[in-house]
C-alpha cells in the first residue's frame, strides 16, 4: 500500500501546478478583459478592483480612481483565481479532451461569477449593483473560463510531455503510426522503373569450321 501511494502521489503535483498556472493567467486575463470592457462602456477601469477590495476594507474602498485599496482588490482577484485554478486542476484531473475542459472551465467561471456577486451583495447590498456594471464583470469571467480551457496544455508541460498536435490525440497517434512504418516497406511501395534487362552482347563470330575435304 505504501509503495502504491508513493507511486500515485506525485501524479497530482503536475495537475495542481497546471491548475495554478491556468488560474493565475486566467486572473490576469480577467482583470485585463474587465478593464477593457469597462473602458468601452465609458466606465472606470478601476471600478472592479475597488469593488473587490471593499470585501475587506468596506465601502470606503469604493471609488473610480486608482488608490491604495486598488492594489488589495487586484491581489484578491489574482489569489482567488489561483485558488480556483488549483481546485480546477483537482476536479479536471488528467482529462485531455480540450472541448470537455473548455466547457468545464466556462462553467467554473460562471459559478465563481455568481458566487462573487452573492458575496458582494451580502457585504455591500444594492450598492454593489449600482457601483459597477455587471456586463464587464461577466465578460471578464468568461475570459477566465477560456483560459482555464488551456489546462491540458499546461498539464502536458508540467508532466514534460510533448504538446499535442492541432488535430488532437487521434492525429498524434496516426502520425506516430506513420513514423513507425519501416522504411523498407515504403521503398517496396515506390514505383520501380522497369528497364529492360540488358542482353549479353554476342561476341565476335569465330572462324567458320572447315568442311572436311572429301
What would you note in describing this structure?
The relative contact order is 0.14. The protein has one domain. Helix 2 (12-40) runs antiparallel to helix 7 (134-148), helix 3 packs across helix 4 and helix 5 runs antiparallel to helix 7. It has 214 residues and is mainly alpha-helical. It is 68% helix and 0% strand. The protein starts with a helix and ends in a 25-residue tail after the last helix.
Residue share in helix: 55-70%
Radius of gyration: 34 Å
Major sheet description: none
Strands, count: 0
Total DSSP helices: 10
What can be said about this structure in brief?
Helices cover 68% and strands 0% of the residues.
Q: Keywords, please?
A:
single chain; 214 residues; mainly alpha; 10 helices; disordered N terminus; disordered C terminus
Topology:
Elements: H1 2-8, H2 12-40, H3 47-57, H4 68-92, H5 98-124, H6 127-131, H7 134-148, H8 151-159, H9 169-179, H10 183-189
Helix pairs in contact: 2-4, 2-7, 2-8, 3-4, 3-5, 5-7
Amino acid at each position: 500500500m505504501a509503495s502504491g501511494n508513493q507511486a500515485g502521489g506525485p501524479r497530482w503535483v503536475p495537475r495542481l501546478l497546471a491548475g495554478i498556472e491556468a488560474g493565475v493567467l486566467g486572473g490576469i486575463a480577467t482583470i485585463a478583459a474587465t478593464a477593457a470592457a469597462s473602458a468601452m462602456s465609458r466606465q472606470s477601469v478601476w471600478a472592479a478592483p475597488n469593488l473587490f477590495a471593499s470585501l475587506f476594507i468596506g465601502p470606503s474602498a469604493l471609488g473610480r480612481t486608482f488608490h491604495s485599496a486598488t492594489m488589495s482588490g487586484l491581489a484578491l482577484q489574482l489569489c482567488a483565481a489561483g485558488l480556483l485554478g488549483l481546485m480546477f486542476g483537482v476536479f479536471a484531473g488528467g482529462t485531455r479532451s480540450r472541448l470537455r475542459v473548455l466547457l468545464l472551465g466556462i462553467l467554473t467561471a460562471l459559478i465563481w461569477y455568481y458566487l462573487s456577486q452573492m458575496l458582494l451583495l451580502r457585504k455591500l447590498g444594492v450598492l454593489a449593483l449600482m457601483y459597477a456594471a455587471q456586463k464587464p464583470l461577466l465578460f471578464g469571467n468568461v475570459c477566465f473560463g477560456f483560459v482555464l480551457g488551456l489546462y491540458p496544455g499546461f498539464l502536458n508541460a508540467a508532466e514534460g510531455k510533448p504538446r499535442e498536435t492541432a488535430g488532437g490525440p487521434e492525429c498524434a497517434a496516426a502520425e506516430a503510426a506513420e513514423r513507425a512504418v519501416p522504411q523498407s516497406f515504403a521503398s517496396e511501395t515506390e514505383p520501380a522503373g522497369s528497364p529492360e534487362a540488358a542482353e549479353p552482347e554476342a561476341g565476335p563470330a569465330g572462324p567458320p569450321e572447315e568442311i572436311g575435304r572429301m
